[in-house]
What we know:
This protein is α/β, with parallel strands linked by helices. It is 24% helix and 27% strand. It is globular.
Amino acid sequence: MAKLESLGRPDAGMGFILITGRTINQGCGKEHGKFSGEYLANVAVCEMNPEDMRRLNVKDGMNVRVTTEAGSVIVKAKKSRRIKTPGVIFIPYGPWANAVLKSESEGTGMPLLKGLKANVEPTWEEVSSLEDLLIKTYGSSKKVRLEE
């Protein structure tokens, strides 16, 4: 599998530029609750150019690991209609994107949300749950209240 040394080199086979942003489906998923299946299905995704998916031998709906210098997360690969440029991936705003974004704002007051170097690789690991992401971020000593 690709190592972080290939970051930023799409020709190396696994390097990508990550952008994040809002989507209609992300907003609709929040209406069902952040612990809902609808939210997970709409936010724990990595939209990819179909050409890149073929290059990585990744099918729509397969699990992929997205890794940046800030961390890694398992999400579902999704064939994108909006990503026209090979070498670019998109993850909607939310806990899964936050897991791979740096928190530093470099004095701007806003963390960098676009243009991060990332690696993508197929995996058999399960998509990271919201509960697992919260525990990883805040520690297991915190109580995570699941909505029913």
